[in-house]
Amino acid sequence: MRTSIKRIGNSKGIIIPAGILKLCGFEEEVSLEIKGNTLVISNAKTPRAGWEEAFAKAGAGQEGLLMEEFPNDFDKNEWTW
Length: 81
Fold this sequence. Notes:
This protein is an alpha+beta fold. Helices cover 26% and strands 22% of the residues.
């Protein structure tokens, strides 16, 4: 796809069609990177942003509590330390 560069005040910009924004998952902010003579526009959000905080709220680090009430034959008869 080709698009033209437009004057926006003292800067210049491009119009990115809504379909492309949606396909790329771009919302309010993007990351710009120069690679050689190429401008790379990528999502500013990382795929797992906020997971660490969510795990902490959900009780991460307390894994011993997860399966204690579900013993099975393997745990009783075959598991050895």
